[in-house]
């Protein structure tokens, strides 16, 4: 069954826990936490202090998406703050294999995120070290952007790799996910749907989450 990971980027930051509590109550499996540094992406969001503050209240799996340069420097801080999964961008890692091992050595799950223009081949030799692959279906930095349709084929190809190599990492997609795009990516092989504006911008959060699940059968 597809898992739903609401992205807090589109939550109300002035009333963050009240908004996040609604997705937890609505049965979201994961909380997707977008960390941006103003260098790797042209936007700045939150750091470990906010993750820690939410961790004290929430039981959801914390899925931390690091859109930062030099992620190695901050892995320990985010683990301490309560991350269960950390995604680093392949484009930001000079020694990706080492970075993934660092994450796993902290006893949490390791994932790689790929920008839309980055080929799958950059992760070919680290697949056994991955618990999850995050395929960006928009260019990272902002919520509310349009899904890039060419990414469907990329998801299919990664799903084929997974099957052929008998691996069991999960495939997460992030960007432009809504009622129309969700069934396309799930059919292509996605297991976890990140959705920011579609969920936090909805009049009724639990209806939005339910509609994503229902559309994916
Ligand atoms: C974009 C972030 C996403 C973002 C998705 O850089 O990684 O997680 O919040 O937002 P939507 O679902 O609105 O495209
Ligand atoms: Zn994200």
From TrEMBL:
Pfam families in alphabetical order: Ribul_P_3_epim
Catalytic activity, EC: 5.1.3.1
GO BP terms, alphabetized: pentose catabolic process; pentose-phosphate shunt
Cofactor(s) the protein needs: Co(2+); Zn(2+); Mn(2+); a divalent metal cation
Keywords: Carbohydrate metabolism, Cobalt, Isomerase, Manganese, Metal-binding, Zinc
Binding site for a divalent metal cation: 32, 34, 65, 174
NCBIfam families, sorted: PRK05581.1-4 (NF004076), rpe (TIGR01163)
InterPro entries: Aldolase_TIM, Ribul_P_3_epim, Ribul_P_3_epim-like, RibuloseP-bd_barrel
Binding site for substrate: 7, 65, 141-144, 174-176, 196-197
Pathways involved: Carbohydrate degradation
Reactions this protein catalyses: D-ribulose 5-phosphate = D-xylulose 5-phosphate
Classification via PROSITE patterns: RIBUL_P_3_EPIMER_1, RIBUL_P_3_EPIMER_2
UniProt superkingdom: Bacteria
SUPFAM superfamilies: Ribulose-phoshate binding barrel
Protein purpose: Catalyzes the reversible epimerization of D-ribulose 5-phosphate to D-xylulose 5-phosphate.
Source species of the chain: Carboxydocella sporoproducens DSM 16521
Gene label: rpe
Entry annotation: catalytic residues: 34, 174
GO molecular function: D-ribulose-phosphate 3-epimerase activity; metal ion binding
Protein name: Ribulose-phosphate 3-epimerase
Family: Belongs to the ribulose-phosphate 3-epimerase family.
Entry note: cofactor: Binds 1 divalent metal cation per subunit.
